[in-house]
Amino acid sequence: EREFEETSTSFKSQTVFRGNISNLTCSRDNVVKTVVFPVLYSVLFLAGLSLNGLAVWVFLRIPSRSHFVIYLKNVVVADVIMTLTFPFKVLSDSNMASTGLRIFVCRVSSVLFYLTMYISILFFGLISIDRCRKTLAPFKGTNAKRLARRKLLSAVVWMVLLGLCLPNMILTGKTPRSPYFKCSDLKDQAGLYWHEVVNHVCQVIFWGNLLIVIVCYTLITKELYKSYLRTTTRRPERLRASAKQKEQAKRKMNTNVFLVLAVFFLCFVPFHFARVPYTMSQTRGLLFNCRLKLFFFQLKESTLFLSSLNSLLDPLIYFFLCKSFRTTLFKSLRLPPGTCSWLLERGSDTDSNSTTLKNVCASIGPSG
């Protein structure tokens, strides 16, 4: 019996030792998670706070006279909130946060991060619809009633998503039993169920807006191609050269709307494709070994960083697509005449007429 007990104890010790080695090998707390990503998010926080702070300062000076500007202002708010969550993620991922701060990250900070991500996705869909409408019907104006409806729509988007996310905060109320806990350990059964419901809703939001973006930019591409054909086939030869130059300038202006498409696909598409196998590795653990789980976790974190990069890339959309933003920025910075002459041809925002913009741009000088 003693020999059996010694053999059994030895076997258990070897099993525990191997398990510890496996856990160390497959632990999420590796140099990528605790060092690389915290450094990247720190840089992103500083750059994003500067650019989005500038964007807020400029948009406060711009009246909401177009659907496009209304949507962009909502994206700015979402980007600022997302940027403010980065320091908490840095402290949590680098294992420098206290237990209380890690609980705050699970209950509040992470929820706000995903809230602002899907608000941005929804407004990207609305912006794509607006850009498509402007391309297909460039002379169709707006009025106070339509602007009021867009503001109401924006408020509804915020209220609905806040309503979805608020229970995630409330139902993440359990006290952790150990310093080593996951956010799911803080949720009760109702919290886990609601979290699953919200995940499904977010998937619908993403795939629905992805379809909207693809349809809108397919229509925009067709319209630009038709415009190109009209220029090359319906003009007399002696007038074709000058008309072609004007049309090229117009196409250069219109093709900038594809910046929205590029940012959407770079920031949001990789994360949602990576999220599918990651979720499967978490819910169907028997099908995945430890190393594979670690791979999908790192893939999810990498694509999540791309989603965070949205807060830094959105100011490019404001600058290149919104003429009123660009003009107000140059005027506020008191840049010399001619600074925005090469940019004035670009952009597709028509919340102000081009003559007014040219006059404003021409009036920019050292004296402001």
UniProtKB/TrEMBL annotation:
Compartment annotation: Cell membrane
Membrane topology value: Multi-pass membrane protein
The keyword Membrane is assigned to this record: yes
GO terms for MF: G protein-coupled purinergic nucleotide receptor activity
GO cellular component, one term: plasma membrane
Signal sequence, renumbered to the chain: none
Gene Ontology biological process terms from the UniProt entry: microglial cell activation; regulation of primitive erythrocyte differentiation
SUPFAM superfamilies: Family A G protein-coupled receptor-like (SSF81321)
Protein name: Purinergic receptor P2Y12
The organism of origin for this protein: Hippocampus comes (Tiger tail seahorse)
Lineage start: Eukaryota, Metazoa, Chordata, Craniata, Vertebrata
